[in-house]
Structures are given as structure tokens and as C-alpha cells.
Specification:
Elements (H helix, E strand, L loop, with lengths): L7 H22 L3 E7 L5 H12 L5 E7 L3 H9 L3 E6 L8 H9 L8 E5 L16 E7 L6 H4 L1 H5 L3 E5 L11 H11 L4 E4 L8 H9 L1
Parallel strand pairs: 1-4, 1-5, 2-3, 2-4, 5-6, 6-7
Helix pairs in contact: 1-4
The structure holds guanosine-5'-diphosphate and magnesium ion.
């Protein structure tokens, strides 16, 4: 039997990287700093961005690309906070890619923006391979996913610049050790900035803001 092998993945990822470079150039030309916010479903990505918009109001003009299977729910939350928002429906796709982000960039006036948050689809696997043109890749997990969740998903922590362990206010109720999670992230990626936060009590939110604009 004769096989012709086709490697689709590598082509796709290379094409994505080219488009991401274009996005990055566009952002740099307009002095816009972009954050990719990745992480599990329900880990607190949207809420962390909401806090950032609130705390940075008056100092930085923020925009958000709300990426989700159905994006309007988070998009409405960001709009309520006064941020320029573009919902990005991914349908069956489990991650954003540079092509989608490129189109979203065409929809906004970059002259009016200082910071751009790109909330990715909630999961710890698919977004790893797809750079978007962002300046900083941030992965969010919460204690409710189990304190072994970082050890079980090393790849996304390897490629991220920062990790946020959120919902520390309820760690004791789910038998999770946030310090173990921080330790796992640093073991997997010694260069990672790792912080603990609670969007409910406000603990760690100063560090969250420093991580963004410090
Ligand atoms: N107790 C607690 N709940 C939180 C915290 N952060 C977010 N939540 C809740 O977790 C749920 C999911 O948050 P959301 O920001 O929508 O998560 P996303 O899916 O990652 O965007 C919401 O009900 C939030 O109120 C936190 O620090 N502590
Ligand atoms: Mg969300």
C-alpha cells in the first residue's frame, strides 16, 4: 500500500503566526498593548477583566475582544463597564486565532485605545498553539478546578507569561492549596509571573493590575 502523508497542523500554525505578526505590528504602530486572557471555563477571566477596566478607568482606554462559543454574554458585561467591545463567536472552534483577531482589529479605531484584552474561549488546551499578536499571554485557573489542574495541563503554562490562580476566597471549601498551584506553575515555567487573586474579596487585585500595567 502507498501512503501520501499530509501534515496540516504545521501549515496552519505557521500561517497563524504570520497573521499574528501582522496584528502585532498594527498594535505596536498604534501604541496599543494587548493581553491574551486564556484559561478554564468559569475560572474568572471575564471578572478579572471587568475589575481591570474599572480600576484603570481614567488612566487607560480599554477595549475587549470577547471570544467565546457564544460571545454576547461576556460582551454585554464588558459593555456595561464602558469598554469598547467586539464579540467574537467561535461556534464550534475551541480557540481564537490570529485571523479572527485581525478582523476584529479592523472594527475598532486603535487610535482611541491604550489596552486591549482578548478573552479566549474557556479551556486549557486549544489556545496554546495559536498566538494572536498579543504582548502578554495570561492564563487564569481557579481553585475550584482542583489544585492539580496546573500540573495536569503543563503546556499552556509553558507558553504563558503569567498565571493567575483565582477564587482563593473559596480554596478551603474545595480542599485546594493555591500555593501548590503557584508552585506547579513556577516548576513548569520558571519565568512565569504567578499571582493569587480573589475577585470577591479583592485580594491580589493590586498585583493583577501591576501584572498588566506595572
Ligand atoms: N468566589 C469567587 N467567585 C468568583 C471569583 N471570580 C469569579 N467568580 C465567579 O465565577 C463565575 C465565573 O466567572 P467568569 O468571570 O464569568 O469566568 P470565565 O468563564 O472565566 O470568564 C461567576 O459566577 C463569578 O461570579 C472569585 O474570585 N471568587
Ligand atoms: Mg468569560
Amino acid at each position: 500500500m502507498h501512503f501520501t502523508e499530509v501534515t496540516i497542523g504545521a501549515d496552519l500554525i505557521q500561517k497563524n503566526e504570520e497573521l499574528a505578526l501582522r496584528n502585532r505590528e498594527l498594535l505596536d504602530n498604534h501604541d496599543v498593548r494587548a493581553f491574551s486572557i486564556m484559561g478554564a471555563i468559569g475560572s474568572g477571566k471575564t471578572m478579572l477583566i471587568e475589575h481591570a477596566i474599572e480600576r484603570l478607568e481614567g488612566q487607560y482606554k480599554c477595549a475587549v475582544f470577547a471570544g467565546d462559543v457564544i460571545a454576547r454574554y461576556d460582551a454585554q458585561r464588558f459593555e456595561k463597564k464602558g469598554a469598547l467591545t467586539v464579540p467574537l463567536n467561535t461556534g464550534k472552534e475551541c480557540h481564537l486565532d490570529a485571523h479572527m483577531v485581525g478582523h476584529a482589529l479592523e472594527k475598532i479605531n486603535l487610535h482611541n485605545i491604550d489596552l486591549l484584552f482578548i478573552e479566549n474561549v474557556g479551556n486549557l488546551i486549544c489556545p496554546s498553539d495559536f498566538v494572536l499578536g498579543e504582548h502578554k499571554r495570561i492564563v487564569v485557573v481557579s481553585v475550584t478546578e482542583g489544585d492539580d489542574t496546573i500540573a495536569k495541563h503543563p503546556m499552556i503554562f509553558r507558553i504563558s507569561d503569567a498565571a493567575v490562580v483565582n477564587k482563593i476566597d473559596i480554596a478551603q471549601f474545595v480542599d485546594a492549596d493555591p500555593d501548590k498551584m503557584i508552585g506547579d506553575a513556577r516548576r513548569i515555567n520558571p519565568r512565569i509571573e504567578a499571582i493569587k487573586t480573589s475577585c470577591k474579596t479583592g485580594e491580589g487585585l493590586d498585583a493583577w493590575i501591576t501584572l498588566l500595567v506595572g
